[in-house]
Amino acid sequence: VSTQSTWGSPFCKQQMSSNNQHQVHPDVQKNLEFLVNTRRYLHQHPELSFKEFETSKYLISQLSQISGLEIVSELTHAKTGIIANLKGTKAATDSDEKEICIA
User: How far is CA 32 from CA 27, 64, 73, 102, in A?
Assistant: First the structure.
């Protein structure tokens, strides 16, 4: 499975295949069914901008099931925002990527 993209993503390998598509990162591939189902649910239950209260509740319920992910803020930022920390298994070095933002 590959995903076509014109922007960089921490979940895509940097090398492009011959058909100009990024290869999906193994961690994404491993959770692909969960990610696709979450995306489908969100698209089936749209909400107005800045009024995504049910979306926030749904995402919190889904994110709280992920091992190593600590939800540190629920519904406090922009009333519907969520902040979570992903705990790694090793300390970051200067050569490692230190930040990954999933929005």
Answer: 8, 18, 26, 15
